[in-house]
Each structure stands twice: as structure tokens, then as C-alpha cells.
Amino acid sequence: MEAMAKKNKTEDLNFCFKDIKRFLIEKFLYDNDPESINILLNIYNFEDSVENIYPTYLSLKHLKKDIIKFLKNKEGKELIAYNLSNLIHDDVNRFELLLYLEGYRAGLNANKSVNKLEMLTFKYYDIEDLYIRKKMFNTDISKTDILRLKENLLKEIRRDRKVKKYIHNVVFRFNLRLLKRKIYNLNSHIDKQLMLNLDEDEKNKGEQFVVTNSHLSKEELHGLNKKIVRFLYLDGMKIFENAFWDGINDKLMKRYK
Known about the structure:
Layout: H1 2-31, H2 34-48, H3 59-70, H4 77-108, H5 111-121, H6 127-132, H7 144-159, H8 161-184, E1 194-196, E2 209-211, H9 218-254
Antiparallel strand pairs: 1-2
Helix pairs in contact: 1-2, 1-4, 3-4, 3-9, 4-8, 4-9, 5-7, 5-9, 7-9, 8-9
């Protein structure tokens, strides 16, 4: 009975700890609370020795191009893309930081993958080399077998149902709680733009400048929202994969420090 009581107490503590982490993640992601991410990082440092992370932000430059492509026949599409990117810039950066952090933790705890990298690493470096190195094969991979290992490990991540479900859920909640509202309110953030009148139609005949029609219909806003959600899911997978590989490399380094 005493053992059962201890087990139940441990399970309760773990459950409460998960609730705390979930609360901190939501405060950071949806309320832009920087203190929450600092507390969360301290917790992860205690649990998984997550210390210095260097996320690479991927989205916004490519997102602008996707928006312009989606609105290819729309007047002032560049202005729309610019305004929307500015509107959600900080939100998307927080989204990417969260997924990088979770992918990195997954890499730190993927011991079988770390072991595979370790076996290949000793073909090229000895223990003294590992002790003084600051990075392993995070970005610059010139060894064919290391590159093949990375490709195989990331292919497994892409097929992992738990990873795909996790990223899907993060994107879904992120859109529902924050992104969708901002996108559907985009028209109030788009300024009118004057363009040189090169098309002498009857309506604008004799006018040197005309005002662009940058207003988006409900259908266009709905399509734009779907496009961005799809983009963020694919972007989230890339962020998670890159972070997973970084975590594996850093875990190997920690073994020899």
C-alpha cells in the first residue's frame, strides 16, 4: 500500500509539472510573456540540460513570397504581404522558438541516434578532438556517411506519427487562439497605396495616380489563412528536424565534456 501511495504521489507530481509547463508555453506563445519562456528554459535545463540553444528562424522571408504568389492577381499584393508579415512577425518567431526547443529536447533524449552518430564520429575524431570542439556536424557536413545518417534520422522524424500529431496540434491551436483573428482583421491594417496610372481606362482617365484596391474579401482572407496554416505546418516540421539534429550533436558533445 505504501508503494502504491508513493507511486500515485509521483504520478500526481508529474501531472502537475506537465500542467505548469503547458501553462508557461501558452503564456509565452499566446500572451507574448517573456518571463514564461525564461522559467520554462530553466525547467528544461534542470530536466534535460538544455543550456545554450541557437534557433534558426526560417519563416518570414519565404512566407512573404508565398503570400504574394497566392495573391498574384490582387492589386497591392506586395503591400498586403508586407503588412501581414509585420503583423504576425513576433508571433511566428515565438512559434518557431517553441518548436525548436521541443525538437532540440527530443534530439537530446534520442540516445540510439546519438549512439549511431558517435560510432561514425570516431572514424574522424578522437576523444581529445571532441573535448575541444564547440560544434560537431550541426551544419557543415562534408562526410558522406554523416550526411546519410542525418537524412535517415530526419526521414524517421517526418514519418513519426507522434511528432506529426504534436506539430499539427501546435499549429491548430496557434491558429485558433491567435493567428486566425489577426488574419481576418488584416483589412484594418492595410493602408491605401497610390500607384502611377499606366492604364488609361474610362474610370481613371486623366488621373496621374490611382488608389489600389487592396481590400481582401472574406473568401480571400479564408484562403490566405489556410495557406499560412499549411505553410506553418511545413515550416514547423523543418524547424523541429533541424533542432532534433542539433540536439543529437550537442548530446554527443556533452558526453565528452
